[in-house]
Amino acid sequence: MNFKRHLLAGLAAAVLATQAPAQAAPVEFDDATVAELQAAMAAGTLTSEKLIELCLARIQAYDAQGPKLHAVMALNPKALEQAKALDAERKAKGPRSPLHGIPVVFKDNFDTFDMPTTGGSVLLEGSIPPKDAFVVKKLRDAGAIIFAKVNLSEFAGGATYSSLGGQSLNPHDLARSPAGSSGGTGVSIAAGYAPLGMGTDTGGSVRGPSAANGVVGMRPSMGLLSRSGIIPLALIFDTGGPLVRNVSDVAAMLSVMVGVDPADEATKASEGKFEKDYTKNLKADALKGARLGIVRDLMGQDPEVDWAITSAMDQMKKAGATIVDVHYPKWLLESSREYYNAVRWPEFPVQMKAYLATLGPKYPKSLEEMIERAEKFTTSRPDGARPNPVRWALFKQEAASGTMQDYRYLSVKEHILPAIRATMNGVFAANKLDAIIYPTSSRKTPLIAGGGGGDGGGVGGTNIVSLSGVPDLVVPAGFTGDNLPVGISFVGTAFTEGKILGLGYSFEQATHARRRPVHTPALPNAKIEVKGG
């Protein structure tokens, strides 16, 4: 941590002293799309090295001091060195991909061979995995810079608080939750710490933070992205997913991360169904002629959220979409959380044990050992590490939740989940839908002091999407009266990411509803020149 602060302080001073004066057609770097950043690099008005410096300056301004958002857990100490090498490679050979030289932050449950992967827990403090997670390697091979590991709900459960990383804060309102469990990634993207981020989503953990922090996020179809090398919560629902500023950046990231992974059997389902270039779906008029179903069952919990969603639907209609009311069955609405927990909880002890087996001898090897060690960690340390009684109490519930062979688990896995998938497909077919839309979080994000924030607040539809295994794209839709972001979800059938990216992009271009958070304003001299911008 001392090294991180020293590195940030020096670089922040250097970068603000060396920025070129604003040029014609400037763009704030923390508003720019990846395509704009690449255009600036191609034109010679930006380098990857300078981009890293700009990101470091914002982390220094807003994470280490200022509002102290507490999102960043570890920085890649070689990020600048790698950026310089990638700049040289660009000059000599051209870019490897549209992500060449672009920094990415990762929720700290993605394995990285060169930085610790802790799950936010003192129980895995300092753990260096033997190799990158599959999607981390895909991004690294594409020329992206693995820039930082960021805070999360410990072991991806609950609100964005961890024994190692503490409480992350929402840059729109420091008293409000950034939602979980990928809250550190959501905060980092909203605050402009990096253009791109990765989180994981089991029951809503990419989508809740996307809505709460006012950014774009996607839970892809089950099997589109490999889970190998990610600390598991429950593989039956786990998937990685991007959190970014713009829909086009989701498309750019998916294009390099997809692929069948022999180490993750679920990815076999994507063979022949994933696209090599998702950006070709980004058409501003994609809403014209589209038929969308609004899930009215998921509204009526917060009038301010409902107002923003209704206004969003009005914009979609103006863009040429037809919107019809659709309803989920009462049994699904009332029992989705129970179905989710019935399979989520029993999987964690088994799958966590398999992950722990890949780590060194000083780390626990079972959930029982995790519980035993947690019970001995009873007070805060001088460096800020502290107990996490809420998450650690859940360990005991997970340990006592039954096995993956008992009737409660098997009845949901073998009978209920297929029924839910059939129901979702039936809603699409019966209403001739291109997508289902719903408020990602049915209520505005709660106060941290109220203990909320696991899924962005309120009863929502994220669990139902997880149970169905289909894709869900979150796009900023507007704000409440107290300037809290509201997100709207675009849901497709399995492996229709291209279609919902097109619809979300069309909505984004019609509304431009994303705003920079009030607590993380633009820094001086941080504009870039984009040709034709």
Can you characterise this structure?
It is a single chain. The protein is α/β, with parallel strands linked by helices. It has a single domain, classed as Amidase signature (AS) domain (Amidase signature (AS) enzymes). 38% of the residues lie in helices and 13% in strands. Strands 2-4-3-7-9-8-13-14-12-10-11 form an eleven-stranded mixed β-sheet, sandwiched between helices. Strands 1-15 form a two-stranded antiparallel ribbon. A hairpin with a 3-residue loop joins β5 and β6. The radius of gyration is 22 Å and the shape is globular. The N terminus is likely disordered.
Please name the defining characteristics of this protein.
alpha/beta; Amidase signature (AS) enzymes; eleven-stranded mixed β-sheet; two-stranded antiparallel sheet; 15 helices; 13% strand; globular; disordered N terminus
